[in-house]
Amino acid sequence: MRRLMGLVTVAVLGVALTVARADEKKTPDATLALHAGSVAAGIGISWGGGTLTYKGKEYPIDVKGLSVGDVGATRIEASGNVYNLKNIGDFNGNYTAVAAGLTVAGGGGYAAMKNQNGVTVELVSTTQGLKFALGGGGVDMKIKQ
Q1: Left if phi > 0, otherwise alpha if psi is -120 to 50, otherwise beta: which for 41?
Q2: How far apart are CA 138 and CA 145, in angstroms?
Q3: Is 16 helix (H, G, I), strand (E, B) or coil?
Q4: Which residues 6+ apart lie within 8 Å of 17 measured at CB?
Q5: What per-residue confidence (pLDDT) applies to 135?
Q6: In the chain, where does DSSP find H-type helix?
Q7: What pLDDT is recorded for position 97?
Q8: In the list 31, 82, 83, 103, which could disulfide-bond 120, CB 3.0-4.6 Å?
Q9: What are the C-alpha distances in Å from 109 to residues 55, 59, 85?
């Protein structure tokens, strides 16, 4: 059993390092900041929204389907980079997990998601101990009209 756990740990670390190395070579097309309100024990929340910064302009966004597994948190924030965003309309869509559930230094959470237009979002929580959980159908993100 120990050997199996060791192999699983090595595999997870390999994926994390591969993602980290890929990030070093990429230049983000945009940045994303998300925020949410209170969380109750055993009940996830759907994120309220955030801000997409693209080509020097800020766009408010709605986010639905991204939950957190924290108990008693009152304010949760996450930020990250957006890749493969060729035009602003490509941001809207349903994002599904490329990598999720990894813990980063300091106990923060990491998730990488991709939508139907090939846009990839990589998020890191800025609240320690936060774990991302994608909704059953992924995460819907769209620019507010």
Answers
A1: beta
A2: 22
A3: helix
A4: none
A5: 56
A6: 2-25
A7: 82
A8: 83
A9: 27, 24, 23
Residues 6+ apart with CB under 8 A from 12: 102
The pLDDT of residue 18 is above 70: no
- Cβ-based neighbours of 131, under 8 Å, separated by 6 or more: 68, 69, 70, 101, 103, 109
> What is the token pair recorded at 106?
């300091």
**Residue 81: closest CA among 43, 136, 119:** 119
Question: Residue 34 carries which DSSP code?
Answer: E
Whose tokens are 């945009």? That residue is 30
Six-digit token string for 63: 């986010």
CA-based nearest residue to 124, from 83, 82, 78, 81 = 78
**Amino acid residing at 14:** G
Higher pLDDT, 64 or 100: 64
Size of the chain in residues: 145
Q: Compute the C-alpha angle 132/93/34, nearest 5°.
A: 40
Q: Which of 41-45, 60-64, 98-102 has the lowest mean pLDDT?
A: 41-45
Tokens of 52: 């997409």
Residue 92's nearest CA partner among 65, 69, 63 is: 63
